[in-house]
Amino acid sequence: LPRIVVAGNGQLGQMLQQAGAPLQLEVMPVDPNADIELGLRPDDVITVEIEHWSDSVSGLQLKQHPNFRNAAALHAVIDRQRQKALLDRLDVPTSPWVSLESGDLNAQLESVADKVIVKRRRGGYDGRGQWRWQKGDQPEAEWAGECIAEAMIPFSHEVSLVGARNAAGEKVFYPLTRNWHENGILRASVSNLQVPAQQQKDAEDWLGRIMDDEDYIGVMAMECFVVDGKLLVNELAPRVHNSGHWTQEGSAISQFQLHLRALADLPLITPPVDGASVMYNLLGRNWKPEWLQVPGVHVHWYGKEIRPGRKVGHVNICRADQASLIESLKALQALVDDEDKIVFEWSIDQLQ
Ligand code: ATP
Ligand code: MG
Ligand code: MG
Hey, what's the torsion of the CAs at 70, 74, 77, 83, to 10 degrees? Predict the structure, then answer.
């Protein structure tokens, strides 16, 4: 089996490494911004857990390696303008948008909607690099050339699809996951809810089309808004994704193993999902040992320094059915910090 080298050494690289171990797959996360010789081998396969890095010594070695995967998809996705254009070209529904250019910014913004979100084309995550604008507000001059503007969508909720494709073009998907973002940051995900079959079908069709178009190998995630029961694509992530973390214990094949299977050309089968799961992000908070007494609780700590709002770990709560999951959620809710109890209220609401 090839060695898998991951550009980026945050928690996603760490969890890919954990997933590789039982398959005796060596996974080596590296810092793509470093100026060191990485000692890459010709038969290494290079993947990413981040989308942006500098043209450092290490960064160039990764990018220029003959087995650097998914260069086309990364090119298309790291710039929101190109990403939106890709969705339009493939007839994948997305919120109305324009690219902001110099000139009358008010007119450009109003051409989209009365309420818009302005998003920096490159480099944003967890809601950073975004501004809300509505008719009458003064636009910022620096948005021109740097940002897209998209209509504010009055969604009923947000969902995401995680899927994978291998070199032979085979594709597999998890069930749609329901996500709760607050201030642009994912607080929790719930999976295996009863999802309308048409939503699952549309989402698989679109993500499949995107992965085929980019000749993609590995896991890709697609975030969507649900409006009047129909999906509208928000954005794509050409990598394993926070909304897929529940698959670590919620499926016999986690998204991390699925990604490695696709990259190493191991059999790609539809990941079995029987029970129900909630993923709860630890944002600037430690976990507590007593949580482990709750059935179905699995703690994943990233080993990072705790700073306010920072993703430092997550907890998967996975049970065989929704009723048992609700029991575990209530038990865990009693043990978490007050500010996080709302996460459990939301999760239980989705399951009822
Ligand atoms: P990520 O960490 O997922 O990469 P990001 O910084 O790239 O996030 P987006 O996914 O574009 O940001 O937006 C973050 C959140 O802001 C969305 O999940 C959604 O809750 C809200 N949001 C973004 N765009 C819109 C929109 N057009 N209408 C309504 N809400 C939106
Ligand atoms: Mg994003
Ligand atoms: Mg997002």
Answer: -70
Whole-Å CA distances, 160 to 50, 51, 64, 248: 18, 19, 31, 16
CA of 350 to the centre of ligand 1 (A): 20
Residue among 72, 80, 65, 2 nearest 32 (CA): 65
Q: Residues within 5 Å of ion ligand 3 by Cβ?
A: 223
Cα-based angle 47, 183, 187 (whole degrees, multiple of 5)? 65
Q: Cα–Cα distance between 344 and 334 in angstroms, integer?
A: 10
For ligand 1, the distance from its centroid to the CA atom of residue 212, given in whole angstroms, is: 25
Residues with CB under 6 A from ligand 1: 95, 117, 119, 124-128, 150, 152-153, 158, 181, 184, 223, 234-235
User: Please, which residues have CB within 8 angstroms of residue 197's CB and are 6 or more apart in sequence?
Assistant: none
Q: H helices of 186-275, where?
A: 197-213, 247-250, 255-263
Tens-place pLDDT, residues 306-330: 999 999 999 999 999 999 999 999 9
Q: How far is the CA of 235 from the centre of ligand 2 (A)?
A: 6
Domains and their CATH numbers in the chain? 4-68 (3.40.50.20), 96-151 (3.30.1490.20), 157-351 (3.30.470.20)
Task: Give the ligand with the smallest distance to the CA of 112.
Answer: 1
Using one digit for the tens of pLDDT, what is the confidence trace for 214-255? 999 999 999 999 999 999 999 999 999 999 999 999 999 999
- Is the complex ipTM more than 0.90? yes
Residues 6+ apart with CB under 8 A from 347: 188, 190, 278, 280, 329
- Backbone phi, then psi, for 167, in 5-degree steps? -60, -30
